[in-house]
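Quick one, tokens below. Sequence please?
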């Protein structure tokens, strides 16, 4: 038995996923290595690197409308925003073990149609499908759909919970012998009946991922999700969020291991700590250009701030809580509180508008030598701030190459990350039981 094998039973396993960097300011667009956001070769490259690194899954975001700012289409959106399940179905043919996670709205889809597409992906991939459940109460996005954006903020989780439950009823409607049974669901948001035309998925249910930090979101995660895409990146915030969500599971008859919490994070590597810090600072300056800084500030203030100097102080005027200058983005629900926090930070550290935006909008980032990054990531898992990480690279599509080559071997050396896939399905990778009909687990 090797030293690595002796250590492994005493260490919590780490889960890793790869997020395809989308049309936002995470990507360093002016880097000459920055590639297409829609060319299939970009998706293939990142997915294959993630699979070579033995990642649990590949994660795709989705946008249902081109975002606008002050009546103009947001610059980055003109590159295109392809439909995630279509991309993942194609990736199923060029990968073998990597999980395939699609972001799909529970507000602007229907249970039968989406359950069918997800079950099909699970069959085509041999049990690797996952659904990131998102919601929207945004009337701007809703204009693309017959219903429009009529849902109140709290009501969207009610619909989402019923949506997930209905989809699971459909996946459970086939017998163990492989024959369809009639189903009928009559609830507040959906009334459907008939026979589901796709056999039960290889995983029983595709893995359900959820992101949401409100009270309703945390409760929905505890009741229905297999994975939480968390935004809590610091150790202290992560431990508090982890403990709160895991505590809620018991009310639904679930164990702490039934739900994996995985925050989205970035990383910057260097041969020395100083080099990594210098690279990280340069990346953040390129991610938040002077124009981007003002755009983000306008989203909070709800005002035209184009006359302000990005290298000058924050506006003295207060935000307009009712005004909208940006559409199709996640909005701040308490702009006055956000502005107060930003002002306090700016005044305490003497930060300009651009510096304030850089400091307040960045994801948790692991910065250092490969060994320092591996050690710090392992610490987060060991101290129960997370079960793993969804890595959001700064480059499309090669932003994970260096991490897989230089950090993953060190995580394996520590005995906290797998050295091979132990099963064919995403549930195998995540250590999740395969559900049997009616929500009982094997």
């Amino acid at each position: 038995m090797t030293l690595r094998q002796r250590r492994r039973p005493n260490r919590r396993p780490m889960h890793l996923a790869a997020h395809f960097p989308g049309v936002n300011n995470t990507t360093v667009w002016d880097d000459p290595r920055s590639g297409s956001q829609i060319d299939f070769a970009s998706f293939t490259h990142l997915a294959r690197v993630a699979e070579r690194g033995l990642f649990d899954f590949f994660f795709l975001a989705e946008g249902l409308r081109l975002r606008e700012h002050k009546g103009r289409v947001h610059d980055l959106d003109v590159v295109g925003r392809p439909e995630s399940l279509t991309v993942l179905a194609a990736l199923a043919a060029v990968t073998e073990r990597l999980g395939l996670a699609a972001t799909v709205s529970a507000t602007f889809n229907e249970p039968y149609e989406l359950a069918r597409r997800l079950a099909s992906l699970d069959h085509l991939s041999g049990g690797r499908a996952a659904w990131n459940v998102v919601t929207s109460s945004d009337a701007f996005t809703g204009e693309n759909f017959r219903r429009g954006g009529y849902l109140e903020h709290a009501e969207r989780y009610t619909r989402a919970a019923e949506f997930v439950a209905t989809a699971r009823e459909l996946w459970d409607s086939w017998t163990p012998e492989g024959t369809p049974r009639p189903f009928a669901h009559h609830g507040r948001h959906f009334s459907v009946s008939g026979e589901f035309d796709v056999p039960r998925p290889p995983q029983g249910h595709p893995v359900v991922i959820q992101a949401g930090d409100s009270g309703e979101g945390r409760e929905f995660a505890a009741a229905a999700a297999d994975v939480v895409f968390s935004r809590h990146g610091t150790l202290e915030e992560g431990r508090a969020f982890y403990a709160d969500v895991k505590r809620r599971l018991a009310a639904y008859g679930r164990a702490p291991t039934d739900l994996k919490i995985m925050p989205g994070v970035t990383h910057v590597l260097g041969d020395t700590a100083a080099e990594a810090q210098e690279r990280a600072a340069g990346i953040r300056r390129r991610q938040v250009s002077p124009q981007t800084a003002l755009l983000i500030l306008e989203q909070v203030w709800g005002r035209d701030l184009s006359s302000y100097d990005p290298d000058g102080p924050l506006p003295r005027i207060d935000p307009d809580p009712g005004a909208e200058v940006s559409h199709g983005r996640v909005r701040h629900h308490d702009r006055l509180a956000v502005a107060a926090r930003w002002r306090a930070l700016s005044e305490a550290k003497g930060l300009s508008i651009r510096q304030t935006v850089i400091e307040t909008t960045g994801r948790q980032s692991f910065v250092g030598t490969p060994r320092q990054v591996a050690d710090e990531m392992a610490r987060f898992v060991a101290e129960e701030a997370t079960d793993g990480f969804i890595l959001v690279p700064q480059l499309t599509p090669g932003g994970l190459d260096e991490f897989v080559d230089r950090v993953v071997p060190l995580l394996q050396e520590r005995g906290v990350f797998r050295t091979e896939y132990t099963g064919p399905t995403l549930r195998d990778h995540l250590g999740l039981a395969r559900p049997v009909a009616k929500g009982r687990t094997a």
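The chain has two domains: 3-270+369-439, 273-361. Residues 273-361 form one domain.
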